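Two quick folds needed for the group meeting slides. Do the first one here.
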Amino acid sequence: MRRPLVTGHAVGYRLERGVGKLAAHLDGTDYIDSYDDLEDAA
């Protein structure tokens, strides 16, 4: 049996991140990707 090229976890992560980016764009705010980015934005 072949292993999938993309795991379900990876798909979920990318989908969640994409939704977050879209929501930030629609709200007119910057998307914060990590805690490091959060500290830089503050």
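Then this one, please, same format:
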Amino acid sequence: MTRMSLFLIILILGSCQLYEPSLPKWDTSWKIELQQDVIRISDIIDSQDIIKDSLNTENNKNTLFISISDTSEKQSIAEKDLFIKTSDQYITQTVGVFEIDKPDIEEVQGSTFSELFADLNPQTGMVLPVIEARTIQAGPRSVVFDNFQEIGIESATLSIIFHNRMMVGIDNNMYIVLYDAMRSDDANGGVIDTISFDAAIPANSTLESLPLDLSGKSISNQINFIYHIPFSGTDSMMTLSQDELNSFFYTEVVMSSLMVSSALAKIPEQSFIRENTAPVDADDHTIQQAHIDRGKIFLQVENHLNLDNELQIKLPNFADKNGELLIVNDFIKAGHHKNIPVNLEGYTFQNENKNNTEIENIIYTVTSRTHSQDDFTWVHANDSVSVSVLFDTLYFDYLQGDLGRTEIPFEPLRKTNILDFADFQGSFVMPELLLQFNFHNQINYDIDVRLQVKGYKYGESRTTIEDSIIIDMVHTITPGESESADNCIVLDKKSSTPSIVDLMSIFPDEIVVDGVAYVEGPGSVNTGDKVWMDYTIDSPFELKINESLIIDSDKKIISEKDLDAEKRNHISENLTQILVSLSTENGLPVGSEFSFYVSADSADLFSESINDSTQKFILRNQIVAAKTDNQGYANATVKNEHTMELTKTQIALFEQYPVYYGFKVSLDPTDSPVRFRSADQLIYQPVLTFNVLIDPEKF
């Protein structure tokens, strides 16, 4: 190696640097759902002495506020009401009469004049005497068809074109006897039939015979012909030329299209199409459209042909997520069978016309196509292709239609230890009571609800019932669509007999709410759709708020579990965004101002001043009053969400520990008294969303 080469190698190595691969930065986020709080009007009353005193003015008696509530389990339409089972279907398609290719016209060489009149020993230049009319038998001559070897004919005709190129004419009534060369040992010598000509054939002319009907005959591909030719003779002598001596006749055999019931032949492509229906067995349901959660169709195919088979089954009642109809294609070898499972999970079950009308039948179209064969193959009319369509139970996770009258039972709600007077001293006044049912329906059907509210007063042993009151309630819940439909029903002492006041007046030891819901009529449902209810027995009252009522929450801490030290250490460097979201659900019939406080100093948490934005921020939200019924009671909550994006300086607050948070609610003054129930409440849920750019080099 030269010195220059060594120098170049060292120079190259010295100029190279090795780089280790590095991971790219990526965005991520996490949420902290802080503790949900509930502010009840009853809590507000207890915390405001002025209000409490104004409600306890009747003969210095205490007002006894009652608030009893319970919530049912969420119920759904049972799986047994969201399925169909269709009867299995069986198709056996025999080949039946089938067609094979029409044979080509076959030319059959006949005989020369010298051969036919050999008894005259005709020679060129010979003076031929007058020839008397005579019938000459010629043959046999043969024809062989190459597209079959043996066939049982259902319908076909055969005719012969006779070309007379001789100088002698032929009278009418010529006939030709056809023999099957492969059946010469039969008792009749293999005779097939006789072909006739109904006119004379003058010299140098052509005539086609009457067609011979071959229906019902079985023949091979080798046919012999015996000609019975009635020559008309000549009326004068003539000198024979060489051309006249060599003159001849020949025939052409013409066979029509062949419809056969059996054949050993070169079978062309055959196909058949069968459309069939399977009635939908959905009990008293009607289905317009559904989405299949699970279920299969099993296709069992038996090919009893000596031909390979291409099978196609179309099921237009099933479409995939792209709207493509279900088509099953498969190949079945000759003489074989095959089981083909078809998984319908994820398919839409629909009317074949896609018009959302009732699906009465499952339609399926079976197309069977055989391959053409170059070899001779036996096929018989009773050869068949059998297709069994076996339907598994189809379960739906979405259904549109009419479910008939479908029952959804509610589990009984039992409430005990309702009124405890053990530590109560003095006298009390029970105000008017309201029984409120809140129905929540995610199912897109009208639902008829029939409930009973039962109050039981037991004896000391709790084995006997001393008194009881039962309240019946019937209501139709409106359908839920994209979200649940909430229905509120309020019953007071005038709504029923007996009333909720009658029920509570027996001081029940137990309250039981049970009943049933019925789905009926047109609509739609997903398997995840639920219906449930909650009820409240409540003490209503009227209250005029002259000045804002302010309620403070307890001070809370964002826990180390939610925001650990490692996350805090990287907030300033890696955090790109913090969103503070405040979700509220107001069931109070008055509006309010909601203030959410976050601070590093617990002593300064609820002050309105912010001296350092890295130490504290406040999120404020104006809350709209709940919707009320015609009596003025809240009957529908108002949901609201307010989001605040923190500034860079505010983000620094979360690098510290501990971090405190809490809220203040200021109820708006009212111009006139407002009707409350003691269970009216405001729910709020604060959520912190941290968006972070992760740099793996710094972790």
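Slide caption for protein two: Residues 1-20 have pLDDT under 50 and may be disordered.
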